[in-house]
Design a protein that fits this description.
about 575 residues, single chain, two-stranded antiparallel ribbon, alpha+beta, about 5% strand, five-stranded mixed β-sheet, 8 strands
Length: about 575
């Protein structure tokens, strides 16, 4: 991985999920009830953090980092690490299933650490070097895929949150871009998404500057000098500083009359009505999401407003609020409807997607998901379930959330992943075809290969120390420090090379214990924490697309499972 600054572009998007709760990773346990309570408590949202020190490639990934890009530690959840390891040991049997794994009699190495002898089977072979993996990736990448990625980097082509720094559309000269958007690093902010979706739909050229949210880091002094309140989003339009997402949209509409209007002439009153409905829906959702009592009443209140939304989607011919085109109501509704679907499934066990009472809403979602402007900005359910609590001051579970929570926290993150079947209501950003899975594996491998140094350092935070003072988003801690254990670093590097190699050549099948390299084998017990730390922090869309994140999470989980089995196990 590149240094901190570079990581914020490719890497910062490649591993930067911040969330208040560790996932399952398939077998990796859910948090105990006491830890879950921290998520549902009404703690202050996103308290400002103290100044962070400069990041280094040795694990200080960046201001809101992740190993693939932006993500960080979690001192607040340090207590869950022991529960995670204990749960996996119980799952595989024995007081210490990893330590008790039988080894083959042919042993050429023996090493002692912590008073225990570690025998390394001679059959184990280290995976290819990063340079060789990069060569393999280049060979496996179709020309059109490589060309599309270069086009995105140049400011054209499809938007990629983890790659795009400027969006030119039909503008030939990048120096003539008139809009600069300041949005959040982690791609959590729904108001930032609202503005960026509007810019994409209007195809107004703009550049992007990424700023921390209060709940996972500090804001640069030059940004605070312009905007002392520090709130996001902010835009500079023709040199004019505009704060507040609604004001930004108004200024953009007025400043680019030659672009397609998002408020069609003659429909201003209808747009205003729809925007008021969006705020009413937001209020009903927010009340239910954060309340631990009156669950039935709050649910019915939400459903009543949702019925009004369903009715409004039936007014015009076409899937969108005003008919056949995406307009201003979509920009306001989209970011919150996707968060409603994710959070209500996770915290309340309520599946808004594919709900029989809301067929027009599902049609609207499907139409939005057919547009790259939306899918490039949308997060998956796991990311939203974990990024919302630190932003809103906590969310409350009810007694119907267990099944959805278990699935979203990684119960299905195992190989082989199911493909060529319709996606579930919990995985709406997925086509779930074999072709999509193949592309996704390359995307995930590309992230690991291009950012491998920083990813290794990031994984080592699991055995390092949490940052101080702590931040409001426990899974995004820019101050966390990695372990300085050189042997463990080599083991993690070898494990990640094994994961990348399997992404490229494994065909989506489980990773076998015999695929562990000797360095990874010697420290296999600690790999559970290190790879699990990374797996919990893969964010969509900050780090990669949802299909790629799904593949990466499953491959990391498969490697963890392989490390816990005897080498001769299937």
């Amino acid at each position: 991985m590149a240094p901190a600054a570079a990581m914020a572009s490719t890497a910062a998007a490649a591993f930067s999920l911040g969330a208040p709760r560790l996932p399952v990773i398939r077998g990796l346990p859910h948090l105990p009830a006491a830890a879950r309570g921290a998520v549902s408590s009404s703690s202050p949202s996103c308290p400002p953090a103290a100044a962070s020190s400069a990041a280094s490639a040795a694990g200080r990934v960046g201001p809101n980092d992740s190993a693939l890009g932006q993500v960080a530690g979690t001192a607040a959840l340090a207590a869950t690490a022991a529960a995670l390891v204990a749960r996996r040991r119980r799952r595989f049997g024995g007081a210490s299933s990893v330590a008790s794994c039988a080894t083959t009699p042919s042993v050429v190495q023996r090493r002692f650490f912590g008073g225990a002898a570690v025998e390394v089977p001679s059959s184990l072979v280290s995976p290819p070097a990063w340079e060789e993996l990069d060569r393999q990736l280049a060979e496996l990448t179709p020309e059109d895929e490589a060309a599309g990625l270069e086009e995105t980097r140049s400011g054209r082509g499809q938007l990629r949150v983890d790659v795009s720094k400027v969006r030119l559309f039909d503008l030939e000269d990048a120096s003539k871009v008139r809009v600069k958007l300041y949005r959040d690093h982690a791609a959590w902010c729904p108001y930032c998404e609202k503005v960026q979706l509007a810019l994409e739909e209007k195809q107004v050229p703009y550049s992007i500057s990424k700023i921390n949210m209060n709940c996972y880091g500090d804001k640069p002094f030059d940004f605070l000098a312009k905007n002392p309140m520090g709130l996001l989003p902010v835009a500079e339009v023709d040199g004019q500083l505009v704060t507040d997402s609604n004001s930004i949209l108004d200024v953009v509409e007025a400043s680019f009359p030659e672009k397609r209007p998002l408020v069609p002439p003659g429909q201003e009153a209808e747009v205003s009505q729809l925007l008021r409905l969006e705020r009413a829906l937001f209020g009903a959702w927010f009340t239910w999401l954060r309340s631990q009592g009156n669950d039935v009443r709050n649910r019915e209140g939400f459903l009543q407003v949702m019925e009004m939304v369903e009715d409004r989607l039936s007014v015009h011919e076409g899937p969108f609020f005003l008919g056949q085109e995406v307009t201003m109501p979509e920009c306001h509704f989209a970011s919150f409807l996707e968060r409603m679907a994710a959070s209500l499934a996770y915290f309340k066990g309520f599946k808004l997607r594919q709900h029989p009472r809301f067929p027009r809403l599902e049609q609207w979602f499907k139409a939005m998901e057919a547009r790259s402007s939306y899918t490039a900005l949308a997060g998956d359910f796991y990311t939203h379930a974990h990024d919302l609590p630190p932003q809103v001051g906590g969310c409350a579970f009810n007694d119907q959330s267990d099944e959805c929570r278990e699935i979203l926290d990684g119960a299905d993150w195992r190989l082989p992943l199911t493909v060529d079947v319709p996606p579930t209501p919990l995985e709406p950003l997925l086509l779930n075809t074999s072709a999509e899975a193949e592309i996704a594996r390359r995307e995930a491998a590309r992230k690991l290969i291009s950012n491998h140094k920083a990813v290794v350092g990031f994984c080592l935070r699991a055995k390092g120390r949490g940052g101080f003072p702590p931040v409001g988003a426990p899974l995004s801690d820019p101050r966390a420090a990695p372990s300085g254990d050189g042997e463990l670093s080599a083991a993690v590097d070898e494990a990640l090379r094994g994961v990348a190699a399997h992404l490229l050549q494994g065909g989506g099948q489980p990773i076998a214990p015999k695929e562990l390299g000797p360095a990874a084998y010697r420290r296999r017990e600690e790999l559970e924490a290190c790879l699990g730390y990374l797996c919990a922090r893969v964010g969509v869309p900050r780090d990669m697309s949802f299909p790629a994140a799904r593949q990466l999470r499953a491959h990391l989980g498969s490697y963890i499972e392989a490390a816990a089995k005897p080498v001769n196990a299937a």
